[in-house]
Amino acid sequence: MSADHRSFSRREVLRRTSLGFGSLALAGLMHSRAFGAGLPAGQVHFAPRAKRVIFAYMSGGVSHVDSFDPKPALAQRHGQPMPVPVKPTMFNNNGNLMASPWEAKPRGQSGVVMTDLFPKLAALADDLAVIRSMTTKVNEHAQGNYAFHTGFPFMGHPSAGAWMSYGLGVENQNLPGFVVLQSGGAVVPHGGVGLYSNGYLPAQHQASIIRVDEQPALPNIKPRESDALQRRRLDFIRSLDAPFAQATGEAAIEGAIRNYETAYRMQSAVPELCDLTGESDATKRLYGLDSPNKQCAAYGRQCLVARRLIERGVRFVELSCLNQGIGAGGAANPWDQHGKIKEGHGAMAAQVDTGLAGLITDLKARGLFDDTLILFSGEFGRTPFSQGSDGRDHNPFGFSLWLAGGGVRGGTAFGATDELGYYAVEDKCEIYDLYATVLHLLGLDHEQLTYHFGGRDFRLTDVHGRVLREILA
Amino acid sequence: MTLGMMRIFNGLGSGRVFTCLALLATALATLTANAAAPTPAQVEFFEKNIRPVLAAECYECHTSAKRKGSLVLDTREGLLKGGESGPAIVPGQPDSSLLLQAIRHTHPTLKMPKVGAKLDARILANFAEWIRQGAPDPRTAPSTANTQPASSTWADTLAFRRQWWSFQPLSKPSIPTPTNSTWSTNAIDRFLLAQMESHNLAPGPDADPRTFIRRLTFALTGLPAKPEEVEAFVRASQIGNRQSAIANATDSLLASSAFAERWSRHWLDLVRYAETHGSESDPEIPQMWRYRDYVIRAFAADVPADQLIREHIAGDLLPPAQTRFSHDALNESRVGPAHFRLVEHGFQPVDTLDDQVKAVDSQIDVLAKAFQGLTISCARCHDHKFDPISQRDYYALYGVLAAARPAQVQLDSPELLNKNRPELLALKSQIKSALADAWRDAIPQLLTQLTSGSSADPQLATLHQRVAEVGKSLAALEGEARTKALNARAGGLQPPPAAASTPQPIARWSFDADARDQLGALHGELLGGATLRNGRLILDGNSAHLRTAPLARELREKTLEAWVALANLDQSGGGVLTVETSSGSVFDAIVFAERDARKWVNGSDNFRRSRALDGVTETAKPGELIHLVVSYRADGTVAFFRNGVPYAAPYRPDAPIAVFPTDARVLLGRRHTGGGRAFLAGEIDEARLYDRALTPEEIAASFRAGPVGVGPEEIAKAMTPEQKSKRAALTAELKTARAALAAKAPSATEDALATALKDAQASLANPLHAWAKLNKLDGPAFTTGWADTTKAWRDALIAARDHNAQFTKAWDLAKPTDAAQWFREGNALVRDALPRVLPGDFTLEPDGDRVVKGLLPAAVSTHLLSEKHGGLLTSPRFRITTDSISVRAAGGKGAMVRVIVDNYPLGSNPIFPKAELTREEPGWVRMDTAYRKGSWAYLEFGTADDLTRKLGKSSDAAGRSWFSAERVLFHDKDTPREEPLAAAPLLDAVASPKSAAELAAHYERTLRAALDAWGRNSLTAEQTAFLDYFLRRSLLPTSLKSLPKVAPLVAEYRRLESEITAPRRAPGVIAGTTFDSPLLTRGDHTKPADPIPRGYLEVLHRPSPAPQTLLPPRLALAESIASPQNPLTARVMVNRVWHHLFGRGLVPTVDNFGRLGDQPTHPELLDHLAAQFIAEGWSFKKLIRELVTTRAYQLASEPTAAARDHDAANDYLSHFRVRRLEAEAIRDTLLAVSGRLDTTQFGPPVGTGDRARRSIYMGIRRNNLSPFLEIFDAPKPFTTLGRRDATNVPAQSLALLNDPFVIEAAKSWAEQLLRQTPQADAAARIQLLFETAFARPASADELAKSRAYLTALGASADASDPRMWQDFIQSLFNLKEFIYVR
Fold this sequence. Notes:
The complex is a heterodimer of chains A (473) and B (1382). Chain A has 473 residues and is an alpha/beta fold. Chain A has helices at 2-17, 26-31, 72-76, 119-123, 141-150, 160-168, 227-248, 251-274, 281-286, 294-311, 341-365, 431-441; strands at residues 52-57, 94-97, 104-107, 112-115, 128-134, 178-182, 208-211, 316-320, 372-377, 381-382, 385-387, 394-395, 399-405, 412-414, 416-417, 424-426, 450-453, 456-459. Chain B is elongated. Chains A and B meet through α5, α7, α8 and β17 of A and α35, α38 and α39 of B.
């Protein structure tokens, strides 16, 4: 099975890379590890259910009790003090139990209960596998972001997208294997670009941040000269490089020479990617690109470009939320409503709901949903009690996320928090379990996807992780 | 291409390797256990060399009990029988034995033990020998749990693991004699050549001189060789001796500043150098760059490696003889420990212990990798899987490092730090005597004034009366004008209501003359540059604000009212009027535009009692007064009014109305203490505080009535000409009366005395209270009055003392024994001497007419000689057990006290207890520690620039800041009270005064006794307070004018004080309480087990434990690592140098000399180099010189045919290794060749945009690393990286093709080229470019191609078109030869 998968990839590579580019022999290209072939041939450990991941990261922390894990007890006991001791919080400004402003009801055929915070996603409930018993060990944004991206709460380790690029290799030589999308002025979450780092993995696995609504979309991607001029320059360079490469006999130098061909092709591949003129109006509408809500339209553009990226063989795409500036949510943590959760979460949900629902619908229509994994999560949940009068503080002890697509059993609600949504009490999950499951769906054994650095083998799941078979189709 | 440390997977995946031995097929099943009994010698061999290895390496999985893969290795039978697949050994045939193949890693799939761990070469030889002998195995008895260890003990494991090559003492290998006797230039060559010969290899040809000098220059300086340097070298090596040309070039490169910059960058890679802490907000590590400069200076000066390491670990603890100073009197050694501060810190962590565990782990990780080539950090959760490092070792080391407290440390030499100290001390002593004399002399005068001013002189009384009357008339006149002015403000529509109808505030600030509360005692202090002008408080929006004395009463229901003019409408977050708790964590306030632009809001802590108010958007013009009121009703309702009408509907927040305790206070112009963007830009005309909620009617009336305070200009404007002239007359009369009064009472103390007596009337705590009450009494009335007063004094004192006695006394810093337990840093708190805690010490004012303000209670103070002295005073480590910690302290100019929890140095939000010290006189400051109960902590008092992290304001421009710390209490709810000490000395009288005259004499006696005691340094606390009272109020002379004999001494003191300069500071650590850390079960900080005695690795203490137990633990650690006996340190260091010069270490895994690292390709050479390194004084420059002058370093990079076939990895160095330049070298080279490089050295980090400095001077912010450098594998600063990756990604090509920086470099070079060669033809220019970029001329072919390319570019254009040359140069940048070195 794995061999089949592999050979298909190779054919794919040949097909894509022989389309009229460059003049160097493809054979060399194929054998070079410079192009992101992370593991040697035959690496996929078992039959993959998905080939790629789209990660909708909700930076700042979505309130699970207001969305995917509604708690009737909060409405019943609104305004009452917490019946159990409250663990230290970030702001130590803890109020009483607070009802959700959003109504909850069973959705779809599966009857999974969700609020109407995300109406369009709720309508797709039968496609979502909600994990309601997520936990994390850290309570602040930067550490939470690192934990969610790399498995470790500090910088230096490879991001999940880098691990997947490393584990699966790259299908399209003209695009990076791991892409982070931004639009509408969205910025990197707290912790900085280290969140998207290759860590100790080879550098080709680090994320490229593509700004889907700006020019240039990627630093240095825009040539500063005409194509003819650049082509002439590249020919000249190659003619002078050849004797040097020959004299030294260094594989690295040959690799560097070939990189120029790739770089040359990327210069057109990236702009083409962000050019949506070929998309139909219906498609654009589906993603909310026509929305009068500018943030909604900008996020929808990311979702649409994400689809175009995975169509072109990119392995891991992360989407970035835009700032609405409400209730302590800032550019790096827009979901962080320490105050004004109703306004803040309302605006944030309106921003992402249309685009994500549109993405699922579009992927299904194009037959891509079955081998694409969508992951939706923030770095932690929010407290069932208020912070101040109308906000919620961070809650790392129990929160929700969802997966959809390839290999995931839609219409599932797995695990549970207590009746207030404070602690995960049933089938408690860690980030390691999530990534063990994601890697499993990609055909990778999380215990075998390792990299030796600084004296030990590192894993995305450290020394933990359990595949959550309960949510698998 | 190098792919870093990537471990190639085999197709089976790593999981299968564990069971590999068991998979062997049965082939020799007949081989049985009935071999001949082993001889005693064989038994000994087995027991010594084989059994320990099996026990340590194999038993974990393969025992009779465990049987992984059915393989049993703890019996002879099991070994011979093998697993499911058959026998592990073939006796007599080592090479056929799969066990040996597996442990040699020669088998295609089987690699044992465990993942990638290797056994030492000598062990492999032992196993081979043992199998060759037939695998004699004494283990005949069937295995039982008793006869064999199921899993070995740590002692067994250690005994075995310590045999690993890198833990062996340095051997003294003899220098080999290779067959080829002519090739070598030195011993190193002979080692290398001998290895080559033994592998049937011969060295290739030498590199040509141009290639060589380019290689050497890049390696030593990170910059390209200039064409003239290349030519000079070529000439020298042709004319004379090539070897001496190399030696000369090496010497000159080693002497260059570029060498130190290049090699210090290698060092910075080891310590994960960065200038911020990462995480949310990426806070700066202040002045971290001083460490970078220190490393550069160290390499320039060739500081011995052992010294450098010693300084890194314990530079702050080194004895004077081992301490180094730079030429400009900077204590270099103190900078070394700055690397401990290069940790990441979480942002305001809820769990600070977790943060500390991570930070210390990072310190251990770096220390161990950088200096020992070990991965000790692996032992945090369990004993090391492969190396002789136990979990106990880890926590022994943890205890040593966790005791080091983060701090900013002063770097100046003692001479600078103590500049003029003896002179100042001597002068101060003289000044003290002179002051004592002057004060004694002044006592009679004081008494005369006391008696005369209070009783007899009728003239004086008349004068006083006249001053009072004229003052009153003037006030009435102005009052009328004020009313008129206010009417005018209100548009004249409403007559001001009768005074009676306006509600009475508890405090009012009108700023007509000062910042005092006109109604009560909530007097304001102008802070942060706040000033008064025209009856208004002027606020700059940066730091200016006003803070009042504590409320001294609880406040619940309340109204805040203010008239304010905004400087602009685009500001946000500034507070107008605030009531806040002493820490600033709870507050209610009138705030502008914090939530919504241009809208008012009633701010509160975390908006608990706030709501976005639906009021009008503010449009007031600058200067236009706005009236704002917010009232807080008892029922929890909050109402906000603007200009007399509701700004929004009243509402009831979820959080109840706040109760402000007695130590709460009022702020004007600042939202709350500790808040960001908290300052208002504008002017406050008047503010009032009420202790009830005003009704809407009252608020409307108050608006109409307007502020009471009206500025002089406004008043003048409101007067008729007649009134004006009357006012002038009154003013003149007042002036005359005052002058007459002054003439009558010539002493400056007259007014002071009058004021003091007025205050004393109302204040019991005041020593003159008795006089003020009793001086007109006589006979029995006096006696009774005295008895009552002294009883009241006594009662108040006893009550306060009783109250305070309930608290746990943590430390009384007035006691030298307590003070001595604390840790002192900085020139204000000299470490070596005992702290001075004399009662009644004083400070001399650095300027102005006043000489001295008062006396200090016995305390640890920083400013006894100068406020320019700074310091950090930290307490012993303690566990927080109470809700609060109160300190009695004074301080100012940015000084703070903080509770540092689990050594976490950042933390600005309210869950991190702290207080700015702003009291001139000592008082209690409470910090809320409830959130942190149960944590380990210490207290930190710091002057502004010495604080580990500045949170408040800075010191003043001269670097002045000060604090005085007296006492610390741990307590819960109640707060300590001030003890009224000042009157207490009057209670000591043996005889009670019977009359005013006797009372005056009593004052005199008491004053004289106090002054005498002061002279003897034996003041009591009460006497100190008593005397201080008279000085603070200038009842005794304190001005230069009134102290003619003291004045010249003070002038000289001030001159000497002015010569003191602010110390230079750097991040560092300071010693704190030493303690044994508990072992954390599975590394979980919530599961502490038994404490582990502090120490270092057991494996390095042979045969006995640490010999240096008398040293401080961190210094002992430093000595242990920087020791010639340490088997790792010198090997690791020479190997690092080898790696940088030859492209790969003799141990390729430069940061790991353990079992998961590679073993040395040339073990004897490594030991030879290490021994020589030590013998030559740990000199990097000598080592580098030795290495680059070898023949091996001169080899060409083309492999020989033999090498291509037999040594593809070039393990034996028969040719030179081609390498890509590092990121910094690429950037620096682009700058250098294009003539833009700015070679300025040292100083604060620079951005990418401003100056073309070398890359090492660019700022490194963890969350915002340089994209250009990152593309070329500049390290991410999180752990030691002794061997950088050299990846190959298209982003590199894109950068060199399109990055504006590269294009700019090409442009700049093109312009320079044309400037330099105005007449040259294209060929000459091409040659110059090639020589600069590649240290060689272009070949004929290259020249032809280049000309053709240029022609195509600008066929018709003239040859001096800079754009054409820019284009050509940019192509050269993109040639691989530009960034690769042969």
